[in-house]
């Protein structure tokens, strides 16, 4: 029988997820059921339930479990929402989202990672997560608007097309800041007019690439 890491997973849940203050039952349940070891390269499986990021190829990483739980909890999801993720990576965060909400869309700029992630997602029963290769800066206009958007790569500004694709009252979370240093998890809530922005936990993410890195015209 394949190794299921049941003991390691429940230890992670106790120590790093509940133990560090995650309390949303839906998020806890998702962290309990998604097999993180199947979203990392085979040689790293035995380390999948340690609380740190791991390499997934092409210089990219699967986020630390606590940060996945924290970002998911911050979106305050109830179940019927449509959520867009930017940065599919391994597909792990998308699987966690799929345990919490009905509709998950996920975009990845690196075709090789997108391909592996969509295969693993399908194999693990998350075939209803819709994936697309492309620059997430521009979002997924055909499927907009979204109730929530989660960016899992560091950006020095919030892409305006993504704000446009958010419903009024919807939330967007992004590691915002210089991509060579610490960023701050930043939660934006779209209002009838304008947005509310709250800066929270310091984090370190791999950079968002593509359009977001181009110099912007002065306003
Ligand atoms: N959420 C992932 C971790 C993502 S790491 C997981 O659960 O495993 C960040 C990912 O963002 C990388 O895979 C990287 O290729 C991707 N990325 C970087 N810039 C992007 C962009 N502009 N659009 C879409 N994906 C991007």
Walk me through this protein's architecture.
By secondary structure, the chain is an alpha/beta fold. It has a single domain (3-208), classed as 3-Layer(aba) Sandwich (Rossmann fold). Helices cover 27% and strands 26% of the residues. It contains six helices and nine strands; from the N terminus they run ααββαβαβαββαβββ. The chain has helices at residues 6-18, 25-33, 65-74, 92-100, 111-123, 160-164; strands at residues 54-57, 60-62, 82-86, 103-108, 130-133, 146-151, 166-176, 183-190, 195-203. The N and C termini lie far apart (60 Å). The mean pLDDT is 96. Residues 60-63, 86-87, 89-90, 92-93, 107-110, 113, 135-137, 152-153, 206, 208-210 line the site of S-adenosyl-L-homocysteine.
Quote the beta fraction: 25-35%
Low-confidence parts lasting 5 or more residues at pLDDT below 50?
Answer: none
Tally of DSSP helical segments: 6
- Given this structure, which CATH class is correct? Alpha Beta
Number of structural domains? 1
CATH architecture: 3-Layer(aba) Sandwich
Would you list the SSEs in sequence order as H and E?
Answer: HHEEHEHEHEEHEEE
Report how far the terminal alpha carbons are from each other. Answer: 60 Å
Number of strands: 9
Q: Which fold name is given in CATH as the topology?
A: Rossmann fold
Q: What is the CA-atom radius of gyration, in angstroms? A: 16 Å
Backbone structural class? alpha/beta
Bound compounds, each kind once, are: S-adenosyl-L-homocysteine
The named CATH superfamily: Vaccinia Virus protein VP39
Strand order, largest beta sheet: 5-4-3-6-7-8-9
Largest sheet data: 7 strands, mixed
Report the principal-axis shape: globular
């Amino acid at each position: 029988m394949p190794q299921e890491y049941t003991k390691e997973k429940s230890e992670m849940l106790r120590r790093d997820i509940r133990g560090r203050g995650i309390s949303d039952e839906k998020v806890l349940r998702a962290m309990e059921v998604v097999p993180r070891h199947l979203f990392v390269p085979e040689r790293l499986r035995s380390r999948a339930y340690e609380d740190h990021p791991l390499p997934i190829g092409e210089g990219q990483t699967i986020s630390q479990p606590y940060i996945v739980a924290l970002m998911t909890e911050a979106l305050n999801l109830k179940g019927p929402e449509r959520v867009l993720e930017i940065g599919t990576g391994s597909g792990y965060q998308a699987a966690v989202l799929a345990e919490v909400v009905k509709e998950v869309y996920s975009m990845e700029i690196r075709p090789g990672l997108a391909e592996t992630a969509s295969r693993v997602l399908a194999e693990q029963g998350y075939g209803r997560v819709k994936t697309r290769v492309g620059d997430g800066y521009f979002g997924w206009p055909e499927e907009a608007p979204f109730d929530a958007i989660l960016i899992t790569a560091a950006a020095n500004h919030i892409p305006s097309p993504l704000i446009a694709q958010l419903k009024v009252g919807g939330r967007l979370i992004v590691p915002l800041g210089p991509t060579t240093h610490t960023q701050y998890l930043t939660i934006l809530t779209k209002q009838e007019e304008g947005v509310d922005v709250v800066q929270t936990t310091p984090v370190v993410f791999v950079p968002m690439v593509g359009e977001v890195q181009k110099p912007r015209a002065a306003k």
